[in-house]
Amino acid sequence: MEVRVLGPVEVVVHGRPVRLAKRQHRLIMGILSIQANRAVPSARLVELLWGDRAPARPRAVLHSRLSELRAVLRTAGGVTVQQAIVTGDDGYTLRIPNRMVDAHLFEALVAESRTMNSDMQLRDKLRQALRLWRGSILGGWSSTGPTDALLRSLESARLTAAEDLYEAELRLGNHTSITDEITALSAAHPTRDRLTAAAMLALHRAGRSAEAIGVYHQRRVWLASELGVDPAPALRHLHVAVLRHDPALNRQPPLPGSERPTPT
């Protein structure tokens, strides 16, 4: 069995997609997969599924949804697949090899990227990891309570991997090929200084210095209006260097605030 949560939840058994018709089935499968091989307490599942709008007998409804989900899995793959969801003293565990869940495979590939000996190998491994993302985690589901932490760590890991990737591409001299995608990603995440710096440098090296300056000004305005702060010193220094057309920007040194991953 394979489970995909980096986008709409998908389950594949024996190479065939399994239809999970009910939204709660998809969410339960996604949550258990993100927490694969770790028990998720019933109370936690109730909180994640319903927040402050739980039904009158939430544990009974949860038990019913798990029974339905197991029946679907049994139909798709037999008893062995059905038994992957294990009932504990007060919760449930999905027993599955970690690499059969795309979120855990993503984390493993990112960890492998840090052992690469060249920027080209690093770039290829990170591209492989980021290709696993098909959209928002769990199809865009988000809780209104503290349970958002379940998704935030994965999203943060995705952005860090993207930052590592683009910095490797810049060191390889591939600024022209990444300008549009990195500019869009940095605009969507204005608090990520590494993305902003990489976008500015890529645009400058591609002969689009005016756009690089525009990226800086957009971040400065956003930070001032939303957070009441100025850009970090490293970004301000990069802005000045772009304005001066500093020749050093056309070389391939580490970006402000970044370091080349060290193999372990």
From TrEMBL:
A GO BP entry is: regulation of DNA-templated transcription
Q: Which UniProt keywords apply?
A: DNA-binding, Transcription, Transcription regulation
What GO molecular functions are on record for this protein? Answer: DNA binding
Sequence ranges assigned to domain Bacterial transcriptional activator in this UniProt record: 101-243
Q: Name one Pfam family in it.
A: BTAD
Q: Which Gene3D superfamilies match?
A: Tetratricopeptide repeat domain, Winged helix-like DNA-binding domain superfamily/Winged helix DNA-binding domain
The cross-references to InterPro entries, in alphabetical order and at most eight, read: AfsR-DnrI-RedD_regulator (IPR051677), BTAD (IPR005158), Sig_transdc_resp-reg_C-effctor (IPR016032), TPR-like_helical_dom_sf (IPR011990), WH-like_DNA-bd_sf (IPR036388)
State the protein's name: DNA-binding transcriptional activator of the SARP family
Q: Which organism is it from?
A: Micromonospora nigra
